[in-house]
């Protein structure tokens, strides 16, 4: 399961017991690790840091109090950026960093766009066959015919009104 930086990864007690806390801000604390924290992440995987709860809390608070400004990859403004993935590229796609307004705007856009993408996925599962094409053309012809009939009717009605 791919992660985003800052998340807590699932780890068995056995795995945690094999690591001691790496500490926060290079300060090795050496206590037994209690959490597996996701570090740098790219499409190949994530780096993990083992920490005790105390150090992790300190780290989270440190970043809350000292937000680092970086360039948002979407609007190019200096801002507090958060990691996100492009839903189109899936959970193993690259991690992008963007400011919160850009991420919410993007996610909103994606939600609106979703039905189209789902349709595209359906097409992938079932390739478009010549029969589908023939059916589609027949449907289109039928629709055209109905539209012509409607147009004709509208013309006659407007003629009747004019008289
Ligand atoms: Zn610690
Ligand atoms: Zn932005």
Characterize this entry briefly.
The protein is an alpha+beta fold. The protein is 47% helix and 20% strand.
Can you describe this structure?
This protein has four helices and six strands. Strand 2 and strand 3 (45-51) form a beta hairpin. The protein has 163 residues and is an alpha+beta fold. Helix content is 47%, strand content 20%. The protein has a three-stranded antiparallel sheet with strand order 1-2-3. A three-stranded antiparallel sheet has the order 4-5-6. The protein has two domains: 1-66, no CATH class; 68-154, no CATH class. The structure holds zinc ion (2 copies). One zinc ion binds at residues 21, 23, 29, 31, 51-52, 54-55.
Main traits of this protein?
163 residues, alpha+beta, 2 domains, 3-stranded antiparallel sheet, 47% helix, elongated, binds zinc ion
- Secondary-structure element sequence? EHEEHEEEHH
The mean pLDDT is 82
Number of helices: 4
Number of strands: 6
Bound chemical compounds: zinc ion
Our estimate of the beta-strand percent is 15-25%
**Which runs of at least 5 residues are low in confidence (pLDDT < 50)?**
117-124
- The value of Rg in angstroms is 28 Å
- Number of domains as seen in the coordinates: 2
Largest sheet: 3 strands, antiparallel
User: Could you tell me how far the N terminus lies from the C terminus, measured between alpha carbons in angstroms?
Assistant: 73 Å
Strand order of the largest sheet: 1-2-3
Helix content: 40-55%
Structural class: alpha+beta
Assign an overall shape: elongated
């Amino acid at each position: 399961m791919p992660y985003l930086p800052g998340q807590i990864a699932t780890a068995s007690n056995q795995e945690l017991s094999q690591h001691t806390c790496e500490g926060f801000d290079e300060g090795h604390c050496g206590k037994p690790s209690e959490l597996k924290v996701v570090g740098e992440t790219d499409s190949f995987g994530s780096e993990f840091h083992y920490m005790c709860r105390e150090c992790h809390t300190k780290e989270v608070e440190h970043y809350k109090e000292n937000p680092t400004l970086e360039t948002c990859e979407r609007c190019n403004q200096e801002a507090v950026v958060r990691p996100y993935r492009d839903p189109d590229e899936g959970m193993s796609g690259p991690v992008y960093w963007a400011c919160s307004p850009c991420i919410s705007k993007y996610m909103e856009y994606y939600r609106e766009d979703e039905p189209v993408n789902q349709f595209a996925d359906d097409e992938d599962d079932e390739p478009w066959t010549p029969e589908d094409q023939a059916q589609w053309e027949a449907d289109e012809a039928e629709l055209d015919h109905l539209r012509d009939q409607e147009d004709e009717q509208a013309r006659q009605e407007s003629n009747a009104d004019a008289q």
